[in-house]
Amino acid sequence: MTPTGGVETAPPALSTAAVVDAPVLAAEPVGAYTRLVLDAPAAAAAARPGQFAACSTGDSGMLLRRSFSIAAVDAGAGTVTLVVAAAGPGTARIAALRPGERLSVVAPLGQPFSLPPEGEGVVLVGGGYGAAPLAWLGRALRARGSAVDLVVGAGDARRLLAHDVPTAASGDADAPVDRLHVTTDDGSAGQRGRVTDALAPVLAEHGARHVLACGPMVMLRAVHEVAARGGAATQLATEESMACGVGVCMTCVLPVVGADGATRMLRACTEGPVFDGRALRWDAIGAAAPGRPAGVGAQVPADAVGAPRAAPSPPPGGGDAVTTPVAGAR
Fold first, then answer.
1. What share of the chain is helix, strand, coil (3-state, %, to 5)?
2. Are the CB atoms for 167 and 104 separated by under 8 Å?
3. d(Cα 28, Cα 93) in Å, to the nearest integer?
C-alpha cells in the first residue's frame, strides 16, 4: 500500500485471508444500513477495494457465513469497515452487533479491482449498499492522478450510500472523488432515475474510458451496456449469493469467457467477485431455470467447458445396441 492510501494493481493471493475474532469498535446506522468498524489489523493490511469479508452470524443454527464487501480499511489503525444490510435473520444478527461484542470474520477474500493506468479518467458506479467501497477506491485512483466521477443510486434516499462524500469540485483537495452524481428511483434525492441515466452523460462529457461498478447484477448489466456504447471498458464487482465464500460450494459460479475464447464457470468468491464486463456471458446470467427465481444465478451455456451434453439418440431399429457415453456428460 502506498503512503497515500492507494492500492496495488496486482491481486493478492487468497492465502492473505485469515479467520479473525474481531472486536466491534463502532456500530452506527447509515440510512437503511449499519456500518461496523472492526479491529482486524491483519485483514486491514492486506485488503484491497473489491474484496469482501465472510462473517459468522454467531448462531449455530445458521452455519453459513454472510459475505459483505469491505467498505474501507485503515491499515495504520488496524480497522476494517463493513456496511451491513439486514436482509434476513442472519444479516440482522450481524447488523445488531454493538461495540465491545465480537464478530468472526474471514478476510480479505476474492480478487480486487485492477487499477487502470495512472492518470486515466474513471467513473465509479454503485447501486444501494454496493456503493460501500467506492469512496475507498476513488481515493486510491485519485492518488494515481486519475480524475474520478462517482455515480451512486438507489430506490430511495434511505438506501443510498456514498452520496455525501466530499468532492474536489467543492474545493476539498483530499476528497476521494472529483465529482459526484446521485440518482434515486423515486426522486427523493438527486436526479430521478437510475444510475445509467447519469452514466451516459458523464462518459460523454468527461471521456473516461474505464467504468468500475458494484451493485445488483441487473444494474451491472445495464452499466456495462451503457459503458460499451460510450467506448469504456468495465470492471464489475458482482453480487452473487455466496454460501461458503471460499470456493468450495460452487453456488456463485458465473459463465466467463477466457483469453482462449472458451467459456468456463468461474466462482465469484475466488476468481471474482470483480470480472471484466466484456468476459461475462450475459446471455446466460439471470436466465430462467427450474427452481430458481428469475434474474438469479446463471445457466451453464451449452458451449461451456465441461457443460452437460445430451446423450445421443438410440440407433434406428432399436435392438440391443450400446451407446458410448458422451465426453463431458454428467
1. 20, 30, 50
2. no
3. 14
Q: State yes or no: pLDDT of 202 exceeds 50.
A: yes
DSSP 313: P
Q: What is the DSSP letter of 8?
A: -
3-state secondary structure of 106: strand
Triad 201, 207, 208: Cα angle to 5°: 100
**CB–CB of 162/189 below 8 Å?**
no
Nearest to 65, CA basis, from 101, 32, 109: 109
Residues 6 or more apart whose Cβ sits within 8 Å of residue 32: 85, 158, 159
pTM of the model: 0.88
pLDDT on residue 9: 36
Residues ≥6 apart with Cβ < 8 Å to 276: 233, 234, 235, 236
Q: Widest CA span of the chain, in angstroms?
A: 83
The pLDDT tens digits of the residues spanning 93-137 come to 999 999 999 999 999 999 999 999 999 999 999 999 999 999 999
**Contacts (Cβ under 8 Å, ≥6 apart) of 279:** 256, 257, 258
Closest of 235, 273, 277, 270 to residue 114, by C-alpha = 235
Q: Say what the pLDDT of residue 318 is.
A: 53
Q: Residue 77: pLDDT above 90?
A: yes
Give the up-direction half-sphere exposure of residue 303: CA atoms within 13 A in the CB hemisphere: 9
| DSSP structure class, residue 9 | S
Q: pLDDT band for 196, please (50, 70, 90 cuts).
A: very high
Preceding amide of 273 cis, omega within 30: yes
